Amino acid sequence: MQRCALLAQCSDSPSGLTRLFCSDAMRDAHVRLAEWMTSAGLQTRLDAAGNLIGRRQSSIQPARTILVGSHVDTVVNAGWYDGALGVLMGLALAELLQEEQAELPTSLDVIAFSEEEGVRFQTPYIGSRAVAGDLQSDDPLLKRLDSAGVRMHDALAGFGCDPSELDAAAYDPPQVVAFIEPHIEQGPVLERYDAPVAVVTGVAGQTRACFRFIGVSGHAGTVPMNMRRDPLPAAASLVCQINELATAQTGMVATVGQLQVQPNVGNVIPSEVAVRLDLRHLDDQQREACFEAIHQHAVAVAGEHNVDCLLEWRQEQPATRCDGRCMAVLEQSMTAENLTPHLLASGAGHDAVVMAQKFATALLFVRCRGGVSHHPDESVEPADVQAGLRVLWRSINKLAENQRQPQQVVGVS
Ligand SMILES: [Zn+2]
């Protein structure tokens, strides 16, 4: 907990916490982390994507590796725990292994991913993509500019990384037993359950879309109601319908976070309204069916109000499932610690999404106060972190033990 506070001092802004990819604050954070890693007996290295990795090498050879960690970049004006807590819990595990002089048949790599939030270059997961072998040295992304006009390639080089070595940042999937990401829940469900931790089943898939209703603008006083082509009542009906559809389905979340009304003037009948939808569910087919129902309602309601409706654009991100065997190990560890093994789907994206494409991946949620996240009021209880650490401790020991037995090798998801 003290280290969370110390890391939070490494900020790019004079007030509050903002720590961006390859920034001075990230460098400061790395100096502190590397010091703690070294005294925990870890060998540290900076990879070509700016990830800081501390390795506890198993003396039993040949050894595969268990990865534990999360990201150390933040959003603007962030809380102290999103990302950082997962890295520091990995570090605490390494310290415990050192204290206990435990000899695991696997190596343990504690990873501080360089970039997850997508703030500096408007693209997320730079660090975990490199580790998963999904960011090569010839990737066009390296030419992308940040808001100050700095290329990603140059940001990395300025941080002491060699982007031509990006291919070498990838782990070989057969050599990885599992990746476990401890992370704050960033939602209010564990508080409702009165539980410190939960096993994450997967990360919800997402549909983002924009419906545009087009009518005819006019004077608010002179156009009779039955002669109007007002797109806003149609849009309002769609917003209500979206809310009802999602409320009726377990695990579905739908948000209209933005309405753009043209011309947005109090005494003018609108000409156009754009409705931005964000729809998420762990089951891609259910999400797809819900989206179709929303789309049909949009078309129908446009007809009722004599306006046009366009589905202007639509983006899809499929759901990611966590590895069943890793989940089972986390669940068993919780039971052994007298904790109810709650299962939760994650509505937010995490490095685990990228890692799960290549490695057996699990995500452990730790309760946070009020579900508040991406905000300075983010808060976790030391006792909850301790519960999470006990679960992690049992889990990495179990994973290491299992992988020694060929019939129980944890495969690549
Ligand atoms: Zn995060």
The bound ligands are:
zinc ion
Residue fraction in strands: 15-25%
**Main structural class:** alpha/beta
| Number of E-type strands | 15
Question: Roughly what is the average pLDDT, rounded to an integer?
Answer: 95
DSSP summary: helix tally = 11
Helix content percent band: 25-40%
Q: What is the CA-CA span between the terminal residues? A: 33 Å
Largest beta-sheet details: 9 strands, mixed
Judging from the principal axes of the Cα atoms, what is the shape? Answer: elongated
Q: What is the H/E order?
A: HHEEEHEHHEHEEEHEEEHEEHEHEH
Radius of gyration: 24 Å
Describe the structure.
This protein is of the alpha/beta class and 413 residues long. The chain is 33% helix and 23% strand. It is built from eleven helices and 15 strands. The protein has helices at 2-8, 24-39, 84-100, 126-131, 152-158, 189-193, 231-247, 284-304, 324-336, 351-355, 382-404; strands at residues 43-46, 52-56, 65-71, 107-113, 176-184, 197-203, 205-214, 218-219, 253-262, 268-269, 272-281, 308-317, 320-321, 343-346, 361-366. Strands 1, 2, 3, 4, 5, 6, 13, 14 and 15 form a nine-stranded mixed beta sheet that branches. The chain has a four-stranded antiparallel beta sheet with strand order 9-11-7-12, covered by helices on one side. The protein has a two-stranded antiparallel sheet with strand order 8-10. Helix 3 packs across helix 11, helix 7 runs antiparallel to helix 8 and helix 9 (324-336) crosses helix 11. It is elongated and about 80 Å long. The two termini are 33 Å apart. It binds zinc ion (ZN).
